[in-house]
Amino acid sequence: MSSCSRSTNVLSYLMDELDEDDRVLFEKHLNGCPICRHELMLERSLQNGLAECMKPDAAPAELRLNVLTKILTVQRPRFPFPQVAVTLFSGAAVFFILLKILSGSGLLSKSSGFLIDVIDGIFAAVEQMNSLPLMIGAAIVTMGIISVVALLLPEE
Amino acid sequence: MIKDPDRLGDVRLACEGDRQAFGRLIDDYGGLVYTLLLRMVADRDTAKDLAQDTFVKAWTRLRTLRKHESFPSWICSTARRIALDHLRRIKIRKEVSMPEESFVKNSNDHRPELSAEGIALLEQAVCKLSERDRQLITLAYWKELNFADVGRIMGIPEPNVRVYLHRARKRLREHLRGYENELLQQID
Ligand SMILES: [Zn+2]
pTM of this prediction? Predict the structure, then answer.
């Protein structure tokens, strides 16, 4: 069969991608061109065929029962991102300790003096808490705050 | 996008921890999830297992779903991620090809234009497409999803969905080249 250079427009026409002017022009062309009409008929039948055979399968019969049984034993996490909280917490700890070491060794320039004062302040406060339970308590409170922040973060 | 208020109500109830409502969601969307997984992993038993994993994971994370009406695309994204993880784990992502058996629905009822032979040709052509094209074509023809949903699931911007679908359709035609007359004979 001979071909028509405008038959490449058929799919765009079918998928509603041509703008108004092109659509009108192409419809005029269709009226006079059996090749494009043939192509359109073929693409349209493919479209209907795809819509038909892409229909979803039925769910496996046992899916619902299996899932419902399984989620009886699966606890929903009280707070959805414990990993995030732990990561943030350990990250912050490493950051502070690194800063403390750097400020102690005098590697940081004078311009970050304020930050160092803040860090020193925090470490001084921690040193005041000379009982272990008190320090663990402070850590838990910090974790709690981070957890609440993480809870408010959008997913992904 | 969910428009049916009853279904929307089920999503809300499931978010609040109602297992019966979640069961109804499994009935409503289990087919979509299973079919998507089947097209991706090309193995019925694996797809069944992964469908289970998808809904169990969805249950634990349902509270993070912000817009209840986008549950269909959310559950399909979850399924797709689980399938990709699985394929990565078994490290045959590139080699996974559709076997001879057709995974496209086989029932013969209600085929408006193509006959069984035409559909069989079409199914073979779909199986020859890349995994990505297959996913796209699968999702794009589900009435439960619009192009924005498909974009969200596949991780591509909505306008590109149309472009990629157009290209996938063209590749599909390439695979059908030479069979046009057989397809058309079925219509007449
Ligand atoms: Zn023409």
Answer: 0.65
- Report the alpha-carbon distance of residue A136 to residue B154 in Å, rounded: 44
- Look at domain B116-184 and name its CATH class: mainly alpha
CA distance B166 to A9: 11
* pLDDT, tens digit (0-9, with 9 covering 90-100), for B18-69: 999 999 999 999 999 999 998 888 889 999 999 999 999 999 999 888 889 9
CB contacts, 8 Å: A56 with chain B = 31-32, 34-35, 105, 142
Rounded to the nearest 5 percent, the helix, strand and coil shares of chain B are 70, 0, 30
Q: Look up residue B55 and give its two tokens.
A: 């809904």
Check if the beta carbon of residue A52 is closer than 8 Å to that of residue B111: yes
B residues 91-110 closer than 8 Å to A (CB)? 104-105, 110
Q: Check if the beta carbon of residue A27 is closer than 8 Å to that of residue A10.
A: no
Q: Which CATH class is domain B5-90?
A: mainly alpha
Could you tell me the two tokens for A138? Answer: 């402070």
| Contact yes or no for B39/B96 (Cβ under 8 A) | no
Question: Least CB-CB distance to A52: which of B34, B112, B169?
Answer: B112
- Cα–Cα distances in Å, from A133 out to A130, B23, B76? 9, 46, 47
Classify A77 in phi/psi space as left (phi over 0), alpha (psi -120 to 50) or beta: beta
